[in-house]
Each structure stands twice: as structure tokens, then as C-alpha cells.
């Protein structure tokens, strides 16, 4: 797909990417490493070709199966919260692979990313896409990720990209000490993005933003 980079009127060019990065900075993203990653990754590779001219706008887009690729601002916010100033993460779990875009952003800042998706066609297309883009440090799971992925725990960070009604209790148990869980929680229309950190004295929780995510669904489809 690399030959598509200069397609059309340059709607996927580095200029439009930099405009998006400037917009994320103006919205309050301060981690320059995350901004650099977002500026580098070709988001148009993660949506169907008809939507590539929309790929560098700060909006979510449909990826089929009633799912969406998250808004770049939210991807940046979640990644920034997961990193929390750390130079690099060792093991990260993502719940909700979707297009694999957030996965790729995380993979730029972690030794290994484990990502779980409950819809088989999405996990398969994301696997092929990230392989094609050269990612070697991502492991894909086709499963219900609501209870995490215990065999690979503990994680430095867990990023959940679909909204839970309550924080699934098993997830925070899979955090390493100092590890951080970033998860949207709440009913449709009133979700908040929560950051839950595992400290020596227990779990510490705060709210990062009001958000809109598709719901986290139990079981495989
Ligand atoms: N990070 C993705 C966001 C995709 S939307 C991206 O940037 O493209 C959320 C994804 O979570 C969807 O693909 C949906 O199928 C998946 N999902 C929903 N419930 C799930 C569950 N219980 N376990 C794993 N994945 C789930």
C-alpha cells in the first residue's frame, strides 16, 4: 500500500499529518514522543481506501462490523496516560484490537504488546496489516478480553478501547506494581475515561475525560 501515500491531492501527506499533530497538541496532549508517533504512523492504512481523505482528521471512523477506529486525540490521551512519562513500557495489554491503530501506537512505546479482539475478521485483518507495516512485537488474541489475558500478566499498562459498564474486576489484578489501566467506563452518553494505577497501597483512580466509545461486549461474536 506504500504506493498509495501520494494518492490524489496529497490528503495523506506529511503536511496533513503535521496539522493533526498540531491539533492534538492544542487539545492538551503534551507527551512529544506520543505526538511524534502519531505524526509518523500512516492512519490511512487503517481505514478503507474510500475513507483515506478523512484519516488525518481528529475523528473516529467506521471499520466495519459496527466498530470504529478511535479518534486520534483519544488514542494520544490513552497512550500518554499509559506511558506516564516512562521511557518505555515492557508489556502492554490492549483490549479491543479493532483496526490495530492504537495497537501500532502502543507498539512504538513498548517492548511487547498483547492485543485481544472478540471479532475474528477484525483480529485477522489487524494482524495482516501490522505484519505488512513491519510490527514484530505484537501478539494477537482472538478472545473475549473483558477479563484480560492472564497468562501474559503482569502488564505495565492495560488499555481498553471499548466502554465497560463497570471496570471489570479481573483487569487491575493483571497490573504490575506501578502499572496503569486506562479504560472508558459508563453507559452510552455518559462515559468517562478512567486511569487506575496500582500502587503499593492499593488502587488509585482518577477521571481523565468524558468520552464516547462503542460498548465492550462479553463473549466472542
Ligand atoms: N483500538 C481500536 C478501537 C476499536 S473499537 C482501533 O483503534 O481501531 C473497540 C473494539 O473492541 C472493537 O473492535 C470491538 O470488537 C472490540 N471489543 C468489544 N468487546 C470486546 C471484548 N469483550 N474483548 C475484546 N474485544 C472487544
From TrEMBL:
Keywords carried by this UniProt record: Cytoplasm, Methyltransferase, S-adenosyl-L-methionine, Transferase
Pfam families recorded: PCMT
Xref: InterPro entries: PCMT (IPR000682), SAM-dependent_MTases_sf (IPR029063)
Catalytic residues of the enzyme: 70
Reactions this protein catalyses: [protein]-L-isoaspartate + S-adenosyl-L-methionine = [protein]-L-isoaspartate alpha-methyl ester + S-adenosyl-L-homocysteine
Annotated GO biological process: methylation; protein repair
GO CC term (a single one): cytoplasm
Enzyme class name: transferase
Compartments it resides in: Cytoplasm
MF GO annotations: protein-L-isoaspartate (D-aspartate) O-methyltransferase activity
EC identifiers of the protein: 2.1.1.77
Origin: domain of life: Bacteria
Family membership noted in the UniProt record: Belongs to the methyltransferase superfamily. L-isoaspartyl/D-aspartyl protein methyltransferase family.
Functional description taken from the UniProt entry: Catalyzes the methyl esterification of L-isoaspartyl residues in peptides and proteins that result from spontaneous decomposition of normal L-aspartyl and L-asparaginyl residues. It plays a role in the repair and/or degradation of damaged proteins.
Protein name: Protein-L-isoaspartate O-methyltransferase
Organism in which the protein naturally occurs: Hydrocarboniphaga daqingensis
Gene name in the database record: pcm
Amino acid at each position: 500500500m506504500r504506493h498509495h501515500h501520494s494518492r490524489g491531492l496529497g490528503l495523506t501527506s506529511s503536511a496533513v499529518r503535521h496539522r493533526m499533530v498540531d491539533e492534538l497538541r492544542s487539545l492538551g496532549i503534551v507527551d512529544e514522543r506520543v505526538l511524534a508517533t502519531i505524526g509518523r504512523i500512516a492512519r490511512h492504512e487503517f481505514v478503507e481506501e474510500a475513507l483515506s481523505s478523512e484519516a488525518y482528521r481528529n475523528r473516529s471512523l467506521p471499520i466495519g462490523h459496527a466498530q470504529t477506529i478511535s479518534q486520534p486525540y483519544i488514542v494520544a490521551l490513552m497512550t500518554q496516560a499509559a506511558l506516564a512519562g516512562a521511557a518505555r513500557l515492557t508489556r502492554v495489554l490492549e483490549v479491543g484490537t479493532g483496526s490495530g491503530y492504537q495497537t501500532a501506537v502502543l507498539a512504538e512505546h513498548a517492548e511487547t504488546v498483547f492485543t485481544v479482539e472478540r471479532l475474528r475478521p477484525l483480529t485477522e485483518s489487524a494482524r495482516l496489516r501490522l505484519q505488512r507495516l513491519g510490527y514484530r512485537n505484537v501478539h494477537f488474541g482472538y478472545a473475549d478480553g473483558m477479563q484480560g489475558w492472564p497468562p501474559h500478566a503482569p502488564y505495565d499498562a492495560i488499555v481498553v478501547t471499548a466502554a465497560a459498564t463497570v471496570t471489570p474486576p479481573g483487569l487491575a489484578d493483571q497490573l504490575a506494581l506501578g502499572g496503569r489501566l486506562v479504560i472508558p467506563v459508563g453507559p452510552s452518553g455518559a462515559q468517562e475515561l478512567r486511569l487506575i494505577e496500582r500502587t503499593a497501597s492499593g488502587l488509585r483512580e482518577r477521571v481523565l475525560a468524558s468520552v464516547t466509545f462503542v460498548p465492550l461486549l462479553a463473549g466472542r461474536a
